[in-house]
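User: My collaborator sent over this chain with a note saying "see what the structure looks like." That's all I know about it. Can you take a look?
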Amino acid sequence: MTLPGEVEVLVVGAGPAGSHLARRLAESGRDVLLVEKRPEIGNPVRCAEAVEAEPLRAALGEPEPGWVAQEIYGGRGVGPDGDEVRYEGDSVVGYVLNRRLFDRGLARLAADAGARVSVRTPATAVRREGDSWSVTLSRDGEPTDVRCRVLAAADGVEGLVSRWAGTGGPWPLTELHSCVQARVVGLETEPKPLVEFHLGEAVAPGGYAWCFPLGGGRANVGVSIDPSRGGIDGARPHLERFLARRAPGAGIVELASGSIPAPSKPRRLVADGFLAVGDAAGHTEPLSGGGIANAVQGAELAAEVLSTCLAAGDLSAGRLGEYTRRWAAGVGRSLRRYARLRRLYLRLNDADFTELLRVMNEQLERWRGGKRTSMVALLAGVVTRSPRLLAKMRFLL
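Assistant: Without extra context I'll predict from the sequence alone. Here is the result:
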């Protein structure tokens, strides 16, 4: 494909947020170019691939069969002393995706809607020129300048487009998860597929370890830590120890590492003719690092606001700020709560984790007995049953 000299909207990054944004804009009749720096969309996978079912279905409808590697029916949390909390249901509560096929599927839907898609096409420079942007794209090593009315950054946690556009800087270590993951085979899994989370300072300081089943004895097994407690490369030895304990007979067929944003406060999302979505916008959930459904939901909202702005001929930061305001009032509100919970989480020690799982088990027993429970009920249980945790949670109440 020959790159155009001018386009209405240029989206940099063909992850879930970028592809869904491109699709929705193309469906509304806009001239869209979606570029991806990698040769293959969706590869390599740097994601644990788990996502809640409800928000994903709300944004995309029922997922295509090839997108889902494993349906999930509950979860299991394991504390430092081996005690666990477990929930198993009869209905699907989540999925472990096949991100290669999922990402490619979203890009295909964008192309089907009329967006032009170009791989092996990194953005190398961005300049504001009058009422448009000039973006230098490198296609097979040949630089090409493309002008656009709107520039959208969807280039992830390591992306530079937001920085070049003047809306963001590098992520501080205090606002990152440092992660490493192995895809393993030959693993004994639960009869009913559950996601697993393992807590404890020895397991994952300031984070957690996970085991997400993929079916057929395969799973994603990984560790996320607070990089300030072990350096940006400090997760690898924790993963090796966790694998030796959780999956001693399993074989490793893939290994990946990276960082996930854990923003303590909202990022700046817009400028004149510019907006950011997905990880580039800090739309990950700060406590767990999950971000797939948020990325798609944010892209949906961004496309709706941007379509209105394009129709009105007003692409000012003030008008595009409607995207920021609506995000902050919706999903952004829950992310702010999770940011506060992460600050609490980083204060907890192994005794606190053991106590927290005990209280969660009590609340789940209420749930199983037909009595409703919630985060509020969990906090109330802590208030009445655990003064030691209440002392650490008082700033959340």
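A starting point for your reply to your collaborator: The longest strand covers residues 142-153.
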